[in-house]
Amino acid sequence: MRWGDRLPTESELCDQYQVSRTTVRYALQELEREGILERIQGSGTFVKRKELQLLATRSFSEDISAQGKKPSNKVLEAVVVPADSPLAGVLGIPLESPVTKLVRLRYADHEPLIYETSYIPWSLAPGLALNHDEGSLFSLIQSRYQLQIHRSVEKLKPVLADKQAAKLLNIPEGSPCFEVQTITYLTDNTPLEYNYGIFRGGFPELHDRAVLLSVPPCHIETLRGFLRFVSGGLASSKEIICCRLRLLAVGEVAAELV
């Protein structure tokens, strides 16, 4: 299905997924509440929007600690590079301006969870590439450079692990993962960081983000893996069918998901 397409009727969804009308109705209401679907009286239920952005207010370390696990990081690369055109535009800096590039592997209880690359303008945090540690980057920036971090905007989508990500995350190549692009802003809305990361699928820490995931056109196996991941972590048939319908609403290959 594509954006703006009409979903099947409740009866058709009941037959397709072999569930009760109450379960289907619950799932549709949840997706409508999230803004993924919209009901038009007399016409049906339609896909409402293409992409969902999540506003994050906590760092990775805080997220993992909140799960009762121990966060840790390994810095793989720390260099200063010139900002190319796309990066300069995202960070709101002149082309070729120096930016600190940090490539890190992030862990939860010593299990690799995220392979990520961060870009931070040198003008905001000079010397960061030479004077960093393997703790929380945001805590370091706030304490050393007296910068106040205000918000982060995340975009998520399912992807398949390439050779490098698979090796670093200790998973088979082609495993379902999550690509996360994040822009973090200071209190005056100055962009502080652009971050691109690959999350390893199957971790409970990703549950809250995963169920809100927007699914653009992508490989069918990624969607299947996402469905297996979500279904394995949810308790009720209502929530599972809700996730199935979410994929139906925002994926273009949903007919193969059953």
Task: Please give a handful of descriptors for the protein shown.
DNA binding; DNA-binding; Arc Repressor Mutant, subunit A; disordered C terminus; DNA-binding transcription factor activity; transcription; Chorismate lyase; elongated; two-stranded antiparallel sheet; alpha+beta
Outline:
Residues 1-50 form the HTH gntR-type domain. By secondary structure, this protein is α+β, with helices and mostly antiparallel strands. It has nine helices and nine strands.
Please tell me about this protein's structure:
The chain has 258 residues and is α+β, with helices and mostly antiparallel strands. The chain folds into 2 domains: 1-42 and 239-251, Arc Repressor Mutant, subunit A (Orthogonal Bundle); 53-208, 3-Layer(aba) Sandwich (Chorismate lyase). 33% of the residues lie in helices and 31% in strands. It has 9 helices and 9 strands. It has helices at 10-17, 21-34, 60-66, 85-91, 137-145, 163-169, 207-210, 220-233, 237-250, and strands spanning 37-40, 44-47, 53-56, 71-82, 98-108, 111-121, 149-160, 176-186, 191-200. It has a 7-stranded antiparallel beta sheet with strand order 3-7-8-9-6-5-4. A two-stranded antiparallel sheet has the order 1-2. A hairpin with a 2-residue loop joins strand 5 and strand 6. Helix 1 packs across helix 2 and helix 2 (21-34) crosses helix 9 (237-250). The longest helix is centred in the N-terminal third of the chain and has 14 residues, at 21-34. It starts with 9 loop residues before the first helix and ends in an 8-residue tail after the last helix. Residues 49-57, 204-237 and 249-258 have low confidence and may be disordered.
